[in-house]
Specification:
Strand 4, helix 4 and strand 5 form a beta-alpha-beta unit. By secondary structure, this protein is an alpha/beta fold. Helices cover 27% and strands 27% of the residues. Strands 3-2-1-4-5-7-6 form a seven-stranded mixed β-sheet, with helices on both faces. The chain contains five helices and seven strands. 36% of the residues are buried. It is globular.
């Protein structure tokens, strides 16, 4: 992990980098569509963690029109986006425990404690809930930084999953869309490989 001075420094740095990339979208709609297809049943409550400008929430809402969809974002920009609340995803919100049919995040590399984060997200799952974590391939063995504090190999990630009493039901490779909507650069230039893991408690 990257070492911050304290928790306040972590929040400050995460907010700073969030604002630099506030209009970036880091997920393909087709990825969310596949997650919804994999889940199958109607979802009534969906949580997305580390959502920046709320693209994930909109994509999920397109699939489950009647679902309540909430995204969390640590930055104070959260209030600028629909279906988004300002919240640190490493901290449990007791109102969400046992409620979420789907928990999704592509921001696991922003955690400073992957064990705590996985426990928080796992506890938010409903009886039939599934946790979907999308990991960009650049995360595997990368250098931790103040913007992306987690560095982990894929094998270490799988070990952490199992040690937190989660099992991998399915995984697939996709593309992580690094797209600046107001930039003249084409989206394809910001596309990188990613892997989605579908996890359930055991």
């Amino acid at each position: 992990y990257h070492q911050y001075k304290n928790y306040e420094d972590y929040v400050f740095k995460q907010t700073k980098y969030n604002k630099r990339k506030e209009d970036w979208i880091w997920v393909w709609e087709k990825t969310i569509n596949r997650i919804c297809e994999d889940y199958g049943a109607d979802a009534s409550f969906i949580l997305c963690h580390g959502t920046r400008n709320g693209a994930e929430q909109r994509y999920f809402k397109n699939n489950f029109l009647n679902a309540e969809v909430i995204g969390t974002e640590i930055s104070d920009t959260a209030t600028s986006y629909e279906m988004t609340v300002q919240h640190d995803f490493m901290i449990q919100n007791e109102e969400w425990v046992g409620k979420a049919d789907i928990v999704y995040s592509n921001s696991i590399d922003h955690t400073t404690d992957i064990h705590k984060t996985l426990q928080v997200w796992k506890d938010q799952l409903s009886e039939n809930g599934t946790l979907y974590i999308e990991v960009g391939h650049q995360v595997w063995g990368g250098t931790p930084s103040s913007s992306d504090p987690l560095s982990i190999t894929e094998e270490e990630f799988k070990e952490v999953i199992y040690s937190n009493r989660l099992k991998i039901d399915l995984w697939w490779d996709t593309e992580a869309l690094h797209h600046r909507p107001r930039s003249p650069v084409t989206p394809e230039e910001f596309t990188a490989r990613a892997r989605v893991f579908a996890l359930t408690p055991y």
